[in-house]
Amino acid sequence: MKRKSTLFLTSILAGALLLSACSGEANSAETESNSNEVLEGNETNETNVNGANEENGDGANGDEEESEETAVNNGNEEEYIIAVANEKDETLSVIYYPDGRQELIELDGQAHNVEVNKGTGLIWVTINPPHGHGDDDDEDGHSHGNNEDNENNHAYGSNEDEGNGELVTAYDINTLEKVAEYPAGSHPAHVSITEDGNTVVFSNSGEDTVTIVDRATEEATIIEVGNYPHGLRVSPDQSSVYVANMQSGDVSIIDLEEKTEVKRLHVGDGAVQTGFSHDGKYAFAGLHLADQLAVIDTASQELVKTIDVGTGPVQMYATYDNKYVIVANQGSEENPSDTISIISLEEMEVVKELQLGKGAHGVVVSEDSLYAFVTNMFEETISVVNLETLEEEERINVGKYPNGISIN
Fold it and tell me: Per-residue pLDDT tens for 269-295?
């Protein structure tokens, strides 16, 4: 079932967008300048290489040219920008890796989940009122759905909703300024965006609904799904959204064009988050209470396998080379787990359990499939995992209760 409401942005004006764009250009220039200072030694190497080429002229052989090109490339390692939702600090960490620089965005409430949209350069984050979600009495980082107070929640988009603090907000990844804000329903959990940035989808856990926002028309469509919808993601072909319903143990499949639920598939206890292989063949659901990963064939929309993983799995993310899917095993705050399960997509079985920090929760993979970044919820760090060696390279301090994580 779906219903529609007209939605208005609360914090964007055309002039503000123009100012943000200009600021983005200025900030990019400043960032480039700072990067050049940090990599001063690498620039010197590049200058020396170029000087050698000029002296050697066209007589330089292919091996020398290849060696020089490699030296230059090695001195300009790609920078990743990682966004981390620090739930109990009410902040968003923006980490520049491997440079090590870190910026902090102060939020208007508790950040639960975050997703970077590469097409528009926006960081989207779900925000709950302070102390309204993920409180200390939520022992495993997920309120498993108490709908007794739903009758007291106002309808999405009504005037009475103003100021309730449940929001989905966007920040410019270059300026770190807030550029968009939408009111959400009760307990917004996860947000996902189509590649073009035009459609924003988020779950309202306390209302058993999902909201789809058309940014061009500012029209919001609200769709009823299973009990306590939590994690969700847009499919690689942009045609559908898979929603994990924690209490009912199923996945709602939503057709994005029709804006309607086309199927509800039972997958197992505690379905908490969804994900996809990047070739689009498989969808996944983390089964937090069953200690398993559910594998769904997207063509048939049927469950084809469950894979035993670590204790209390939450998020998962597949590598872009379709080699692995990485599952973060959180456990609970009283009995935290500290591993990720690395699953071969070819064999559909765990090839390695890697120990990280306490409460491994959120996970994201760089587009070059070189690194996985994992939030350790119960020790205020993120782990950097080398996907070539399948070992942890380092641990980075962030804010309190790091939850969702995303990358540019």
Answer: 999 999 999 999 999 999 999 999 999
Tokens at residue 112, please?
């639960």
Interatomic CA distance for residues 167 and 184, integer angstroms: 5
Residues in the chain: 408
Mean pLDDT of 288-311: 98
Q: How far apart are CA 400 and CA 331, in angstroms?
A: 17
Look up the pTM and report it.
Answer: 0.78
Residue type, 49: V
Nearest Cα residue to 240 out of 274, 204, 290, 206: 274
Amino acid letter, residue 58: D
Strands (DSSP E) contained in 345-399 are 349-355, 360-365, 371-376, 381-386, 391-397
pLDDT digits (tens, 9 = 90+) for 155-166: 223 333 344 689
* Order of all β-strands in the sheet with 188-193: 2-6, 219-224, 209-214, 199-204, 188-193
With beta carbons less than 8 A apart as the criterion, state whether 210 and 223 touch. Answer: yes
Nearest to 314 by CA among 244, 394, 399: 244
Tens digit of each residue's pLDDT (9 = 90 or more) over 156-215: 233 333 446 899 999 999 999 999 999 999 999 999 999 999 999 999 999 999 999 999
